[in-house]
Amino acid sequence: MPSYTAPTRDTRFIINEMLDLESYAELPGFEAASADVTDAVINEGGKFCAEVLAPINQSGDQEGCTRHEDGSVTAPKGFKEAFDQFREAGWGTLSQPEEFGGQGMPHVLGFAFEEFVSSANQAFGMYPGLTNGAVSALLAKGSQEQKEKYLPKMISNEWTGTMNLTEPHCGTDLGMIRTKAELQADGSYAITGTKIFISAGEHDMADNIIHLVLAKTPGAPDSTKGISLFVVPKFLVEEDGSIGERNGVVCGSIEHKMGIHGNATCVLNYDGAKGWLVGEENKGLAAMFIMMNAARLGVGIQGLSQAEVAYQNAVAYALDRRQGRALTGPAEPEQQADPIFVHPDVRRMLMDAKAFTEGMRALCLWGALQVDLSHKAATEEEREQADMLIGLLTPVIKGYGTDKGYEVATNMQQVFGGHGYIEEWGMSQFVRDARIAQIYEGTNGVQAMDLCGRKLAQKGGAAVQAFFKVVGEDIAEAKGDETLAPLAEAMEKALGQQQAATMWFMQNAMQNPNHLGAGAHHYMHIMGIVTLGWMWLRMAKVAQAALAAGTDDKAFYEAKLTTARYYMDRYLPDAGALRRKLETGSDSMMALGEDAFATAA
Ligand SMILES: Cc1cc2nc3c(=O)[nH]c(=O)nc-3n(C[C@H](O)[C@H](O)[C@H](O)COP(=O)(O)OP(=O)(O)OC[C@H]3O[C@@H](n4cnc5c(N)ncnc54)[C@H](O)[C@@H]3O)c2cc1C
């Protein structure tokens, strides 16, 4: 069976040293997050995930969820009990507002814990994860009455939440939604329609499920401008907060899918179910975007999480499995063969994984800090800057993070040779579970278009200019340090590639929008490569300072510097290759007609 240990040392390094969370102590919510509290949350959270959630990951994958004839669904063995423990320990309340029963801690801590949960058991983590997304939408757009009715029980995880966008004929293009919402005399709406692929849509782990559903009212524009958001509980909630009648929503079936078997992916049939409008009529997509942005960061973390757990198991295997000899001569001559860890090609895969996971962890936690700062920073200017940066980087965290997360998980499976392909080793599950993160919450192609078609141009390019400025400043500072200068120079070149690609879009995409569509995915990867490089530069700076100060933990900081160098050597050059591909435009890509794709008779 595969194993999992939460990477608490690295998480503490990023939070306490790289982000220096304590330096924000004067901001609301941060005062409670002293280094001691942070360390305790990380260590205890990591232990909970390793001891309670990881042991039911593989069994959950094998058993899957079961739908019964009455439409009820049972989660795999052990999930309900684990969720009881999760709820009792209050893990879901970490970064939620105190007003509704949360602990009001910075999102940085919530995100750190989310990584551990997802590495230990991604399918399980989606039940509280989707609840968090639904909570964000209600917090932002719900009425006071709705907030009081639903939020305390959702935040305590007595109830869970879902998001209902997708229908059989529409996924990306939500303007085509057909689910109807008709106003009733009592002010509620009757919701009728079919939603598919609804994660955590039905289960036995909580007393109620609060569905957030996109639907159209009669006469609304038949486009994204006519979508409204509704809250539709599985069980109606009485005035006193107790659970009432069963609402008209049932699970018609659950999907048989490639991975995340422990999470119930449901077809939900709404048959005149009672729902209530959240926010304004026809403004549902904007409300849902709040939920989706929170969820997209969560999905980026899933990319990291599967890469991390796969990496941990691949390292253990590479140290244990003996095949062949080191190219430089036997490393362990007394043995019949050396551990495969000695082979550069195996080391290439492990170093790629190490450089990605540590860099991506830094990016996710830095991103979480921007979410906090966008609400809580002292000045309007700082709040705007944080909001702009996290808005720009959300599609990168989701799209690049999950593309690379999947690639790393596959490479870690490769380290196992044929054994990686055999289910009992568990590597296949990591690959299968990682795969969905590239698809849901908007496919990665759609993330790339969000980045290039919307975010780059917003406010006359202010966000990307702000990004170039902060990265450029860190590069300039690092150039003044003898150890960091080579890293900074490599980063300067990579940033130049991104700037050139941005300029190419500016000069060519207006005249032919297909040029933008053809290069968007490459651009998202260029930006991912540069952003992780920036994180590595920042980590290297902290490591360098710790070594100069005579740290006791020399090996940890030296490894950071070496991995930073590896990242600059091995990841950054791809930015140039991708830029050159992007600059070929869309001509050869879009030139052939349908006939040319037809299979020859
Ligand atoms: C396991 C699982 C769980 C899910 N959970 C949920 C959930 O909880 N709630 C929910 O509402 N949905 C959920 N989904 C649905 C998921 O979000 C959609 O599958 C996804 O958004 C893509 O929609 P689609 O499948 O209809 O693909 P399509 O929209 O048909 O896309 C097909 C292909 O065309 C590309 N494409 C489409 N439009 C464009 C465009 N404009 N520009 C460029 N490329 C484009 C896409 O990138 C993709 O490669 C889940 C799906 C799965 C498989």
Tell me, rounded to a whole number, the average pLDDT: 96
Give the beta-strand count.
11
| SSE string, helices as H and strands as E | HHHEEHHHEEEEEEEEEHHHHHHHHHHHH
How far apart lie the N and C ends? 49 Å
How many helix segments? 18
Please outline the major beta sheet.
Answer: 7 strands, mixed
- Specify Rg, calculated over alpha carbons: 24 Å
Give a nutshell description of this structure:
By secondary structure, this protein is α+β, with helices and mostly antiparallel strands. The chain has 18 helices and eleven strands.
Can you walk me through this structure?
With 601 residues, the chain is an alpha+beta fold. Helix content is 57%, strand content 11%. The protein has 18 helices and eleven strands. Strands 3, 4, 5, 6, 7, 10 and 11 form a seven-stranded mixed β-sheet that branches. The protein has a two-stranded antiparallel ribbon with strand order 1-2. Strands 8-9 form a two-stranded antiparallel ribbon. A hairpin with a 5-residue loop joins strand 4 (180-183) and strand 5. Helix 12 (458-479) runs antiparallel to helix 13 (485-508). The protein starts with 7 loop residues before the first helix and ends with a helix. Flavin-adenine dinucleotide (FAD) is lined by residues 163-166, 171-172, 197-199, 257, 265, 436, 439-443, 445-446, 449.
